[in-house]
UniProtKB/TrEMBL annotation:
Keywords: Cell membrane, Copper, Electron transport, Heme, Iron, Membrane, Metal-binding, Respiratory chain, Translocase, Transmembrane, Transmembrane helix, Transport. Belongs to the heme-copper respiratory oxidase family. GO terms for biological process: aerobic respiration; electron transport coupled proton transport; respiratory electron transport chain. It is found in: Cell membrane. GO terms for cellular component: plasma membrane. It holds the Pfam family COX1. PROSITE patterns: COX1. InterPro entries: Cyt_c_oxase-like_su1_dom, Cyt_c_oxase-like_su1_sf, Cyt_C_Oxase_1. This is Cytochrome c oxidase subunit 1. Pathway: Energy metabolism; oxidative phosphorylation. Its main location: membrane. The lineage of its organism: Bacteria, Bacillati, Bacillota, Bacilli, Bacillales. Its EC number is 7.1.1.9. GO terms for molecular function: cytochrome-c oxidase activity; heme binding; metal ion binding. It comes from Falsibacillus pallidus.
Length: 654
């Protein structure tokens, strides 16, 4: 009996590695701690009512951001483990398979479970407020999107302790990801973790496109929308076209693994190159999906902190849309070396370089906005200024990679690693951090401590260059990506050591940010005005943190940067008591939460090939849908009295 249990456990739980025992223990302990704290402070009801069942876009946004910061931590620990392994020649701190697992989970987590949710967090926080709406178009779907992302991320992370992690790279190329190359359940975790959260992303994309098209305040024309909202629109249109490709690609790969299909095996007529084409048809647009909203943040920040209108608003909008369209015609630049003809490579080289034009337009517009502006260096502006040189270098090395013949030299070398981290960290992460600093007072009603923020900024920024600049050189010296160790004779030791030191500096920067948040919760400067930065757009006309209904009276917009106009005309945004009407709101619902966990159960069943569990999960999903369709009470009204009370509390009632 005992032997049987042991046998089962060793098959099911990943054993034998101290790191994993450590993770088991810390997961166990944190579960116990959470359970204990919630019970001790009698917070279960509060958690359920206020958070798990919420359909309020602001709370959903906050949950996205918390989850993404946790994932940044997990992905960051992976990064540090890799850099520890590579710091010196001939290190055997990690086994080779373990190294493969770590770069796979690091890449996947950073892009799909860190960047994407941080982005959706910002969408949720800012978009409805910027366009003067009370919520997104489909609040219930919005909650469902969040929980699908969340359970997908949990499923993916579970692979670390149960069954084994994926190890075929963050894009799971066959044949490595086929059953023959990866017989365990790791790749199944990958497929289902991403598949579930991908459904959430697709739904969010649709939700925000409809929100932006249909929910804008009266008077706000498309060409008067704030640039962040425009960038969200561009990003979401891209999501709607790209994500179905991912869904189908992963489904085909799963059929190969689960049902003996041969879409991507050389046997029986399949072809791995088909997979590579498909995955990059999603993968390339994906990098623009995450970077466009960062451009939106920079546009807002640069104009507010230069006390100027954005330079070239129209060209900003057009360049966003052009980038999102061009992003579909470049995917082959990821495999110039894999045997396409010279003409095909030339076509994709040219389309890739063409993207530099609209991107360059944006950079010039930001610079022209700052030119002769009254620049204030607050934290959001700091990250924006840090971004510009980083992104310029990243863009330049991108154009170098786009030279197809030269790419035969750079392909899969450390030069590439340096390039994409340059744009992903310098563009995406810096951009989202700028956005979080910018909208933080709106989310929570207080500002983040500046001193700790400065430490964080400089550690991240200096650490970034120390970490990634040497990698360009390492690429030229012949170091390839995904090597887990190298010999003394290669001469890569010193630069790798410097690079690892840079990674540690960034890690310390992250610790400063966590400290900054904890410190500011207690001591942060309260934002009593609702407009701490002297903003231009509608979100700054309401109190911080925003009341659940956002706008007591729906705004009527007269032009671009409407709040700025009001300020110039001496209009103070107040709530006239006589104009308040009851506000129609969506009711909370536990169904998105419950249904997503049933999807989790089904996903777990698919991962291990346990039919009974798949059936349970899918029945639960169907049951949740039925329950929703029989729900009658979908909405409620906030009474006038309550609105008056809230507005009076903020001193807005006249
Ligand atoms: C915080 C500092 C970071 C460090 C020190 C770091 C370090 C690394 C290292 C050492 C590798 C593996 C290189 C190899 O041996 O092939 C890697 C791969 C990767 N990283 Fe990062 N990284 C960081 C942040 C990020 C961020 C923010 C993103 C995305 C938003 C990201 C995305 C990726 C991807 C997609 C891969 C490729 C994985 C693969 O080869 O399958 N990284 N990173
Ligand atoms: Cu690409």
């Amino acid at each position: 009996m005992i032997d049987k249990i042991k046998d089962f456990a060793s098959h099911f739980f990943v054993t034998g590695d101290p790191l994993i025992y450590g993770a088991d223990v810390s997961i166990g302990l944190s579960m116990v701690a959470i359970f204990f704290v919630l019970t001790y402070f009698k917070k279960w009801g509060w958690l359920w009512r206020e958070w798990l069942t919420t359909v309020d876009h602001k709370k959903i946004g906050i949950m996205y951001i918390i989850a993404s910061l946790l994932m940044l931590f997990r992905g960051g620990v992976d990064a540090l483990l890799m850099r520890a392994q590579l710091a010196l020649p001939n290190v055997h701190f990690l086994q080779s398979e373990h190294y493969n697992e770590i770069f796979t989970t690091h890449g996947t987590i950073m892009i799909l479970f860190m960047a994407m949710p941080m982005m959706f967090g910002l969408f949720n926080i800012a978009v409805p407020l910027q366009i003067g709406a009370r919520d997104v178009a489909y609040p219930f779907l919005n909650a469902f999107s969040f929980w699908m992302f969340f359970v997908g991320a949990m499923l993916f992370n579970l692979s670390f302790v149960i069954g084994g992690s994926p190890d075929a790279g963050w894009l799971a190329y066959p044949p490595l990801s086929e059953l023959s190359g990866s017989p365990g359940v790791g790749e199944n975790f990958y497929i289902w973790g991403i598949q579930l959260s991908g459904v959430g992303s697709l739904a969010s994309g649709i939700n925000f496109v409809v929100t932006i098209l249909k929910m804008r305040a009266k008077g706000m024309k498309m060409m008067q929308m704030p640039l962040f909202t425009w960038s969200v629109f561009a990003s979401c249109v891209t999501i709607i076209i790209a994500f179905p490709v991912l869904t189908v690609t992963l489904a085909l790969l799963f059929i190969d693994r689960f049902a003996g299909g041969h879409f991507f095996t050389m046997l029986h007529g399949g072809n791995p190159m088909m997979y590579v084409n498909l995955i990059w048809m999603w993968g390339h647009p994906e990098v623009y999906i995450v970077v466009l909203p960062a451009f939106g943040v920079f546009s807002e920040v640069v104009s507010v902190f230069s006390k100027k209108r954005i330079f070239g608003y129209k060209s900003m909008v057009f360049s966003l849309m052009i980038i999102s369209i061009l992003s579909y015609f470049t995917w082959v630049h990821h495999f110039f070396t894999m045997g396409a003809s010279a003409n095909v490579n030339a076509f994709f080289a040219i389309t890739t370089m063409a993207i530099a034009i609209p991107t360059g337009v944006k950079v010039f517009n930001w610079l022209f906005t700052m030119f002769r502006g009254r620049i204030r260096i607050e934290q959001p502006m700091l990250w924006t200024l840090g971004f510009i040189p980083t992104f310029l270098i990243g863009g330049a090395t991108g154009v170098m990679l786009a030279v197809a013949p030269a790419d035969y030299q750079y392909h899969n070398s450390y030069f590439l690693i340096a390039h994409f981290h340059q744009v992903l960290i310098g563009g995406v992460v810096f951009g989202y951090l700028a956005g979080i600093y910018y909208w933080w007072p709106k989310m929570f009603g207080f500002k983040l401590n500046v001193k700790l923020g400065l430490w964080a900024f400089w550690l991240w920024n200096i650490g970034f260059y120390v970490c990634f600049m040497p990698q360009y050189a390492l690429g030229f010296m012949g170091m390839t990506r995904r090597v887990y160790t190298y010999g003394w004779d290669m001469g890569w030791g010193p630069l790798n050591l410097i690079s690892s030191i840079g990674a540690v500096l960034m890690g310390i920067g992250f610790i400063f940010q966590v400290w900054q948040i904890l410190y500011s919760i207690k001591y942060g400067e309260r934002d009593t005005t609702g407009d701490p930065w002297d903003g231009h757009t509608l979100e700054w006309t309401i109190p911080s943190p925003a009341p659940e209904y956002n706008f007591a009276i729906e705004p009527i917009v007269k032009g671009q940067d409407d709040f700025w106009r009001m300020k110039k005309e001496g209009i103070v945004p107040m709530t006239k008591e006589s104009e308040i009407k009851p506000i129609h709101m969506p009711r909370n619902s536990g169904i998105p939460f419950i249904m997503s966990w049933f999807w989790f159960i089904a996903g777990f069943g698919f991962t291990f090939g346990w039919t009974w569990m798949i059936v349970v999960g899918l029945l639960g999903v169907a049951g949740s849908m039925l329950a929703r369709s029989f729900t009658k009470k979908l909405d409620y009204y906030i009474p006038v009295e309550e609105i008056k009370e809230t507005e009076a509390k903020f001193g807005r009632l006249v």
